[in-house]
Amino acid sequence: MRTLIASAIALTALAGAAAACPTYSQQGATYTVTGQDLYSPNSYNVTAGGGNNLRNCGFNHTGYVISRPDFTFYTQGMGQYNRLEIEVSRADCDTVLLVNSANGSWFFDDDSNGNLQPAIDLYGQSNIAGRVDVWVGTYGTSYCGAVLEMETWYN
Cα–Cα distance between 130 and 81 in angstroms, integer? Predict the structure, then answer.
């Protein structure tokens, strides 16, 4: 009986930790956009950060995000575009990006956009055509104002 109770407590603790990790089973602020809409950069204000440490969620990266995506983009008309650029263009702190692409692949970046800001380029229709979830997190435990920018490219 003691083993059964201990197992139940351990399972509950693990389920609680998993529930606090990034999940695409929920939606963030939802936008439907076309490749043409994004051919000129679109900007989205966000509060970066969250209480979930990515390292505790099985990601081999440092960063803190919320559980649900900050943004859920449904992309259409992407056929003539081969690249979707997702970046933090402005922020008041050190930010990170976590993206779940249209084919379910995970992407992470910390500082590729310079000035402690991240950028991710998704290539190919399987990654950019459909639902794309984006988390704008922080490198540390703080929160800050930030601007996410998305743009399509032919190459």
Answer: 13
What is the identity of the amino acid at 44? Answer: Y
By C-alpha distance, which of 97, 107, 99, 100 is closest to 139? 97
Predicted pLDDT of residue 11? 35
* pLDDT tier at 57, thresholds 50, 70, 90: very high
- Please report which residue ranges of 2-151 form alpha helices under DSSP H: 2-19, 125-128
Task: Compute the Cα dihedral for 109, 112, 114, 118 and give only its sign.
Answer: negative
CA separation for the pair 14, 8 (Å, rounded): 10
Instruction: Report pLDDT digits (tens) over 15-44.
Output: 444 558 999 999 999 999 999 999 999 999
> What pairing do the DSSP bridges indicate for beta strands 71-76 and 29-34?
parallel
